Each structure stands twice: as structure tokens, then as C-alpha cells.
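Checklist before submission:
- one chain only
- standard amino acids only
- sequence pasted in full

Submission:
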Amino acid sequence: MKKRVLMVVAYDGTNYHGWQLQSNGVTIEGELNKHLTSLLGEDIRVAGASRTDAGVHALGNLAVFDTESRIPADKISYALNQRLPEDIRIQRSMEVEPDFHPRKRAMKKTYEYRITCAPFPIPTKRLYSYYTYRRPDLNAMKKAAGYFVGKHDFKSFCSAGNQTDTTVREIYALEVSQEGADIVIRIQGGGFLYNMVRIIAGTLLDVGTGRKKAEEIPCIIHSLRRENAGPTAPAHGLTLIGYNLDDIL
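Returned file contents:
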């Protein structure tokens, strides 16, 4: 009898061309499909909740697939982790309702963007944070962050490849904090546009370094013009922390 399995997937995105299947590169989705097919003896195709870009990391992305295997759903994570490359690990697997799909459920999603501020780059952070020798104004960034919270049209904060019907999104929380040499931008929302988190991070960094003022953020949002926002921050500083599973199970 067929069952649907939900997996919580963590990965270091450094060596991958993002989540989504591509004909010319190794992806997270492709690795999951390949090793699940081998493990279960079926043609498995997973469906992910977030199609993270090349170089972006995750601690808790979600993926579902259907299988007729007799292996209990909660044991698939153990078996699959024996086959996956060491930079991809299943944190949890469980059976869900046959119609469950992570992209069709309202849920809270949390991302973190890390910026390392130091006189010289720190080698152990190079793959997981964006480096700058300039120390941004943390208070200015915190002030700017408050303007993003709430429901807005975020057209100014999405890249041209966005394919959604609407650019209206709601941000539940946006915090900027200091952790040692790192500035951490933590954002939670119901969903995000293409490159939205990285553009917000780039805009906050512009505020922190004086290129923009915090008070300009409402005007940038209302302008609906991408060129008014800051640059798209590099992918390697971004990590998908995860989803609130209590919202969807």
C-alpha cells in the first residue's frame, strides 16, 4: 500500500547547484531522488518545500515522496543517511496524509543571513557568511528591519525570475543581532519571493554602511521598483533554518 513520507532535510549547499533538478549540475533534489530510488527499489521523485539557490544552506527544508516500501516511514531517515553524501542529512522522516504537500500548506518559514565583520576574512566562516571589513551600524539596521514587518507588496525585493502571481507577502518577524564577529539577520514569514531574503539582507547592509537611511525603507517598499532596493547579498551567507511543523501537521 502506498504511503506519503515527509522528510526534514539539512544540507551544506556549497557543492550543489541549488535544490531543484538541473540537467547540467548536481542538486539536492537529484541526490535525494537517486539515493531513495536505490534504497527503496522504486522510481522516487521528491517534492520540496523551498527551492533554495546554489550555495544556500538548510537546516530544515522539507520534502515529500510516495512509496510502497514496507520500511516504516520513521526508519527511512536512518537508512537513507547511510547512502547520502555527508553534506546532506535527513533529520527526521514521518508518514503524513496522502494529500499532504509542503508548498500547499500555510506555514511559518525562518531564514538566517550571516555577515562576518572583521579586519580580515575568517577562513572557517567563508562558506557560511558574507564577509566585510566594514563594521555596519547595528542600531541603524535594527531600525530599518522594523519597517519590513507586516504585509506588504515586496516587488522591490524580488529578482526578475520571480514567477508568482502576487508579490504581496507577510513578514512576521525580522531581527538583527550581534553574535561575536557576526551580524545575524533572522527573518520569519509565511513565504518569500525569489531572492527576497538576500535582497532584504543586502538592503539592510546598505543601511548599516550608510549607503541608505533606515527611514527610506517604506519609500523603497512602496516604490515597487527593484532598482531602489539594495544589492542581492551572496548566497553562501543564507541558511533556511526551517519550518514550524506544528503549523502543518
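Reviewer check: The two ends are 22 Å apart (CA to CA).
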